Structures are given as C-alpha cells and as structure tokens.
Amino acid sequence: MEEKLNLPLLVRDPKTARISVNFDLQLTRLLKECKYFTIQKKGISDVANDLFAQTETYRVQTANLTLVQNMYNEMLEKMLDVEKPLLKNDINAINKVLDKGLTKLVWRSPNDDKNGFIAEAHELVTAAHKTLFQMKANMDAIIAILNKWIASPLMTRASTTKTYNLAAYMEEHTKYLEARQKDVTDTGKEIHSYLKASNEVLKISKGAHAWKMYVEFINGILVAGVCIAFSVSSSQVQHPSHHPAPTHGAP
Question: What confidence tens digit (pLDDT) does each residue in 175-190 have?
C-alpha cells in the first residue's frame, strides 16, 4: 500500500499526451474494505485506519482531478491544427502546472499541496476549455449561416415551363433577388460578429500571425460555402424541382 501512496497524482500517455488520474484500484478496494470493517466494528490496522480517515479527501481530490482530466483530454482530442497556435500559451501554462501532478506530487503529499495544485490546474484548464469551445460554437454558427444560404437558393425559377431571357427573368425575380441580397448582407454581418467574438475571447491581436491564419481558415470555409450555394442556385434555375439538402459542415 505504501508504494501505491507514492504514485504521482497523474500519468500521461506518451503516444496521445492524454492524462489520467493515477489513483490505484487497490487503494480504492482497500478503502471499501476499511469502510466495511468499520461498519462491522471489526478492527483494522493503524495504517489502514489512517488511510480510511482520508477517504473523503481522496474522493474529492480524485473527482476534481477527473474534471481536469476530462476537459484537458477533450481539448487535445478536438482542437484543430489551426486552433493550436491560438491556444499555445494556454496549453503551455497548463502543462507547466500539470507537471507537478505528473512528477512531483504523490497521494501521500500534504493535502494543502495537492489541493493547491488541483485548484490551479482546474482554473487554467477550465478557462482554456471555455475559450476553445466558445470559438467552436462561433464557427458552428458561421457554418449554420452558410447552410441556410445553401438551403435557400440565391436564384430561383418560378415557372418550370416558361423560357426566360435575362431581362424577363430579372423583372420577374427582382423582389426575390433583392430579399436574398439583403439576407446575405445581414448574415454576412453576423459572420463578422462571430469572428469578432472569437477574437475577443482569445484576447489576441488581430495582427498576430496565428489569428491571421485562423481568419484565412474561416475564409476558406466561407468560400467553400458560397461555391456550394451558387452551385445549388444554378441547379435550381436549371432544375426547379430539385431541392438538395445543406451539405457544408465543420472541418
């Protein structure tokens, strides 16, 4: 049991960089046995009794470390390559703190030291996790706008039998085209606001290389969405009965 209490609080997978709470299962089983013997009023060793006295402390510590583990690993799993430079400083700061739990602190370390580490790690990971997923929510909102463009053709054809020249088509469809143009303009402002919100949550200079690369990435999504929208519109003009579903999604 002594060696189990000398294990570090966390371990990291060398291949994936994911972290895991390192509370040994034998300790968990021993705590359960101690609880059972205590309920049955059976004697247990002083060492086991001292361990059992820390049951609630270990429970809270492992639960909070599991929250850190889950948020950190989710960031590693879902962070896009273009997002990594934007959160590089945050991740570096987190890894510096996590190093304490990976190499220095063990389960028998003073509770003040462990709790201080857990609180610091939780604060940093929570903040970075919130930033990343706010960015992703903004990106999803932009993609939802593009999918609305795709679902509602920029151009349409009222009659399936009538042959149009350009002047006749424009005369008949002017109101529709004006409405679609206004919609695209308004939603374009929405897209800009989502991008601005991501910049603000990151607290990064708009002149930073990492931010410029991110904007270029979003622009690529926009260009792809507009191309699909025009393709759908062209199909609608040529084949009015065809209504393809939105197909643009997150990378």
Answer: 666 766 777 777 788 9
Residue 243 φ/ψ, nearest 5 degrees: -130, 85
Same domain assignment for residues 73 and 121: yes
C-alpha span between 132 and 198 (Å, rounded): 9
Q: Note down the domain range covering 162.
A: 133-238
Q: Do residues 89 and 173 both lie within one domain? A: no
pTM for the whole structure: 0.78
Biggest CA pair distance of the chain? 97
Strands (DSSP E) contained in the chain are 10-12, 19-21
Residues 6+ away with beta carbon under 8 Å from 248: 143, 146, 147, 150, 221, 224, 225, 228
Tokens of 117: 């580490």
Q: Is 246 inside a domain boundary?
A: no
